[in-house]
Request: fold
Amino acid sequence: MLSKKKKIFILCGMLALLVVTGVLNIVLNGNAISAGSGNNNNLNNESSMSFFDTYRSDRLATRDQTILYLDAIINNSASDADAVEQAKQSKLEITKNMELELVLEGLIKALGFDDVVVTNSTESINVIVKAAALTEEQATQITEIIVTETDRTSFDVRIISVE
Reply:
């Protein structure tokens, strides 16, 4: 039987691997988009579309895998009460983040953007918007939505435009 510390270490290790996988995917997709920037607009649209679609599918797959790990801990009779409680709290946090990101994405799309991805981390909220460039007014509107819907300040919001 694994000790509590070993279980927590294993869970943290799996979560770290999932985060690294997501970051690598974003970096590699970002390089693909940058490489295509010298080509015609048709190729740029395909690259940015694939970025948003790929990001969403990777985010969903990562969360699904994490939830499976957490469910395994919750449903394992060998898990101690603290590990089960931590797994339940982590699962609840993931669910809250999913809901918040969906709401924020919908509100930002309502401003007229073709596509948007929002990520909520402990330090900041990142907004990736499909746009050639953002005006100061658009950036202010996006920041206002984030600040209104969350307990974050405008300093916690990072906005990135992707063509």
